Amino acid sequence: MKDNGEIYNMMKQFNQFIQNLFDHSKTIPVSKISFDTEVRRLCEQNMCGQYGKSWTCPPAIDTIEKLQSRMSIFNHFLVFYKIYSLEDSFDWEGMMNSIKDFQSRTLKLKKKINQTEPDLNFFILGAGSCQLCDTCTYPQQKPCKKPKDALFSIESFGIDAMKIMKDNGLKYNNGPNTVTYIGGLFYC
Ligand code: SF4
Predict the structure, then answer these.
(1) SS3 content of the chain, % helix, strand, coil (to 5)
(2) Which of 6, 118, 148, 151 lies most in the core, judged by the most C-beta atoms within 10 Å?
(3) Distance between CA atoms of 48 and 50, rounded to whole angstroms?
């Protein structure tokens, strides 16, 4: 098992890569993160229209309690986010294109860590329902087409992204006609 100094040096090598992919990032202790079943209840209300449509969204995934227990082996959570411009606040196409871009960046980070540090134990969360395939195979066809790449959202784990930003002095609302997408990296 790596000590704190080794982990710090290891993560340092990804700093530039993360800065190139995202607008801002900040590492916070996992102990400061709340895993909240109320956030899962918002998923169940299907405000985003993706409930029951992805292998990486409820009800296909574990309960919040189980996910929290799985993530409790990690010490750090690196929050990263990117701000996108929209034509106006109804620019649905702009939002969809932005989220796809954010997921592509999140996947690049995931692959980079896997290639550079194959022994590093980490877990990455993105924004929104996984959009890596044109149509998710859930629930008709099993299994997920790209299980190594598939992206889970912060909210699907019961984490309130807005609260994390606010609690840690990060700006969630970045002005009119913008949308901010947030992801996170759990590591030891
Ligand atoms: S990788 Fe494809 S099949 Fe798997 S969760 Fe994402 S969209 Fe669905």
Answers:
(1) 35, 20, 45
(2) 151
(3) 6
| Ligand 1 atom at minimum distance from 130 CA | 6
d(CA 39, CA 116): 34
Residue 152 Cα to ligand 1 middle (Å): 10
CA–centroid distance, residue 170 to ligand 1 (Å)? 30
pLDDT digit string, tens, across residues 40-86:
999 999 988 889 999 999 999 999 999 999 999 999 999 999 999 99
Tell me the C-alpha distance between 39 and 106, whole Å.
22
Angle ∠(138,143,145) on CA atoms, nearest 5:
85
CA 20 to chain centre: 17
**Residues 154 and 184: beta-carbon distance below 8 Å:** yes
Ligand 1 atom at minimum distance from 137 CA = 3
**pTM of the predicted model as reported, rounded to 2 decimal places:** 0.92
Ligand 1 centre to CA of 134 (Å) is 9
